[in-house]
Amino acid sequence: MDGSLTMKGAADAPFYLAQGDECDVFAAAARNGLPVLLKGPTGCGKTRFVAHMAAQLGRPLYTVACHDDLSAADLIGRYLLKGGETVWVDGPLTRAVREGAICYLDEVVEARKDVTVVLHPLTDDRRILPIDRTGEEIEAHPDFLLVASYNPGYQNILKTLKPSTRQRFIALEFDFPRAAHEIPVVARESGLSEDRVAPLVRLAGKLRGLKGQDLEEGVSTRLVVYAATLIRQGMPVERAVQTAMIEPLTDDPDVKSGLRDLVTAVFG
Ligand SMILES: Nc1ncnc2c1ncn2[C@@H]1O[C@H](COP(=O)(O)OP(=O)(O)OP(=O)(O)O)[C@@H](O)[C@H]1O
Ligand SMILES: [Mg+2]
């Protein structure tokens, strides 16, 4: 499986508005080769943060979306038949270990157990990647950094990391930006003016208050950006909010009608 490669100079780093000291913590971890775990709800900026930091630090970024079919070979590499010859092809993790890149394992709790086992010798002071198939044992490049993320909210209890895996990472908790940050973020991402974004962010705050009662997850910053983008394209506010901030959250007709009442309360 191929990881996507993004290499950019700091000047064109993807936009990320810091919520606190997360950029400093990440930079310190990166300088010292300490693995980083990002925890937080869907659409709150984890992926954007990693892309931003990789560009700031001038390190290539290999992103792997983890799923329950992802095998250790998908990360490490495999022998492939090329023009009648069998050749070894590095996976994204091996490439990152050799080159000194950031390997970002998105939704790491979805990965199979054999994947997490591979990470262990890489994420303690040994920093080595043994490749059984070739007999090679690679010492990680000093700039190699392992980053993983997951959403602790909706995963069932079985889908958490083992303590022996978790305790190999420093961890940063992410949440939706507070309003004073979310308004400029959404305005910048969508091109809609801040005064028109403000009520959308107010609505988002109210919807997030329903998490755990009527809603499994609060509305993501990503969806607020979608709503603002539709409005900027000329869609009536009510329709944009319905399609981007209500329908994606629930299928339950009663809950939806409750959410529409919140919309009326915010927009009149
Ligand atoms: N602090 C921020 N600075 C800039 N953009 C942000 C910030 N927070 C959120 N965003 C916006 O929110 C969108 C969603 O963020 P992102 O894709 O990084 O979420 P995520 O936490 O990785 O979600 P998931 O867990 O679903 O993968 C981004 O595309 C960006 O537009
Ligand atoms: Mg993400």
UniProtKB/TrEMBL annotation:
Entries under InterPro entries matching the protein: ATPase_dyneun-rel_AAA (IPR011704), CbbQ/NirQ/NorQ/GpvN (IPR050764), CbbQ_C (IPR013615), P-loop_NTPase (IPR027417)
Classification via Pfam families: AAA_5, CbbQ_C
GO molecular function: ATP binding; ATP hydrolysis activity
Keyword Ribosomal protein set for record: no
Domain annotation ATPase dynein-related AAA: ranges: 35-169
Domain of life: Bacteria
Ranges where the CbbQ/NirQ/NorQ C-terminal domain occurs: 182-266
Key words, A-Z: ATP-binding, Nucleotide-binding
Family that this chain belongs to: Belongs to the CbbQ/NirQ/NorQ/GpvN family.
Name of the featured protein: Nitric oxide reductase NorQ protein
